[in-house]
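User: For a benchmark we're assembling, each entry needs the component sequences followed by a predicted structure for the full assembly. Here are entry 17's components. Please fill in the structure.
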Amino acid sequence: MDRRAKGKSEWGVSYGEMVAREFVKSRLNVACLVFIVFLFAVAVFAPFLANDKPFVIHIEGKLHFPISKALQANDYCVFLAAVVGLIQLLLIRRNRRRIDPSLRGAVLWRQISVSSLVILAGVILIFIFVPRRLDATDYRAMIASGKATGAIFAPIPYGYARTDLKVREQPPSAEHWLGTDDVGSDVLCRLIHGSRISLSVGFVAVGISSVIGIFIGAILGYFGGKVDFVGMRAVEIMMAIPTFFLIITIVAFFPRSLLNIMVIIGITSWTGDARFIRAEFFKLRKQDFVQAAVSLGLPLRSILFRHMLPNGIAPVLVNATFGIAGAIFIEAALSFLGFGVAPPTPSWGQMLSLGVSTTGRFLWWLTFFPGLAIFFTVMAYNLVGEGLRDAIDPRLRKAA
Amino acid sequence: MTTYIARRLLLMIPTLLGITVMVFAISRIAPGDPVSLAMGPGGQLDAERAADVREARMRLYGLDKPVYIQYAIWLGRIARLDFGDSIKHHRPVIELIKERLPITLTLNLLAFVIVYAVSLPLGVLAAVQHKRFFDRASSVVLFMLWSLPVMWVGQMLIGYFCGPTFKQWFPPAGLSSNYADTLPFFPWLADRLWHLVLPVLCLTYTGFAYLTKQVRAGMLDSLRADYVRTARAKGLSNAVVIFRHAFRNSVIPVITIMATLLPAMLGGSVIIERIFSVPGMGLLAFEAVTTRDYNVVMAVATMGGVLNLVGLLLGDIAYAIVDPRISFESAV
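Assistant: Structure for entry 17:
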């Protein structure tokens, strides 16, 4: 191992750090990662970037903050998740300095589970305590009529659900940078808010499928024999059913909701992970450290997930990155076919389906920009997946 | 080999049953049923009449019996390849499939041939030019093609080339013009091909990326192999080394992919067929799902499952045929 590369750290280099170092060697990888972070930032701050409620406004001499009233429970959930996620990242940085590499995995797991619990509890509290509000005040009309002054608006001063038939189907202009759709909503605003759907679907769906896949794969791989034989038949059934058809069937048959879509994509796409983990566990099962763990009488949970999983998780990580791209694509396709989240909630797939109007006119800006957003997002995740695979694959590392 | 195939076929039976159970369960657990969907709130009938009609219809479709009996009846019927009647079209499902299948098959066969015709030379060339300009450029372009969402490409093509707004070069929908029936064969064929250009284009471009990558990887592996070095050392010409020695051994993954593509070829693409209004299997599946045409949904899903299994088996068999080192006995 390259000893100079260790730098300031007084500890050894953990596997994760090795992979990370290999990963950032490619500028393209870093660029894609930055792009994804940027997308997440846009998604988190969507209400501050595009909102028809001003940040500040003087009404009859009094200062009002309408945007605080416009924030809904789900906005607070997003902020909470973002803050906890950031703290998590900072903790990982801190761990690198303070904790021995051999213990970092366990510490990380504990921190991640604590964070998830915090988020879960927070979401429940938010939904209990944040009231559902609707601020129907038209602040623009107030300004126009001179009742209010000194308003500071978001950079894109339109709401995603705002309809304005006077400006429907307008091509990109100075007022509406990416044009307006068939009911006069601003496309850029809807694009910004739509990023939340795409990104969250990718994350949650892959989270679900990875957990199911790891769990099933671990059990099949560890026990082998009859368990494996029966289990593999179940995996085979899932693999044989045409996945996309299964997904549109379930989505069409059950009520429309974002959660449904996430869960359905998650529970139909775990077979790849299960097979990877199973294959890894087959190999690991015979190794000394696993035998040692077994003979120490450790509980199965500990053997499977604390001792074996960290050694076999690499292919799942790579698969998860491609899975996110796939899930974003599937969500867009579902929305395109009309099975997505119910309007007016914006989603990229649904937006791009509006481009060819019923009269045959082609409103290119309605199709082009959301499609471009899907394309860039999917490509960024795919590239990160490729980069991660190259960084993890030891064969390639030797060759390079 | 026969024992191997027989064993694989036997193993397919429980898997197949599992598929039918799952498909059936999903269509029955879901809220709502085709009768209420077809009748709406009951129209002008008074409540009692509506209930009667409803009950009669439920009995007609066999929806009044317990679920497990419905499943048993259905299973018995599909064993005889009788998929029942479509609730929406009032015709046997098998007839609908017979109507739609050739359309999807035409579309996909064309796409299939084009993908292989483009990807094989492209992959070989990329591998031969490993890490040089052509290799890098082609992999970047193919990677971008791979990430292009198909609904975006389809919508843009239709909007740009088929509408009054920009160019009107291609027909926006369907497989043939209204007057196509009156045409003699060759003009008819030209008309059909003219309609197929854009859908086939959409079907092929993702395949380029995938297949070229496989061909390239296979070629790279065999180009690094010892026997290729030996062949070069013998002083064989570059072309002979590449096509006679390396290429033949690198087609193994390509052949297995061909077998696993079978289900996709018959299943059709929901998105592409919907964008271009091609009345193939994908559109049939889509319509069935939106109208809750249970018999059609289950027929399509079961067929898809069976074809996937057959595709996997064919892939394994093809693999063993082209690579004699693989023994049937060790693999299950």
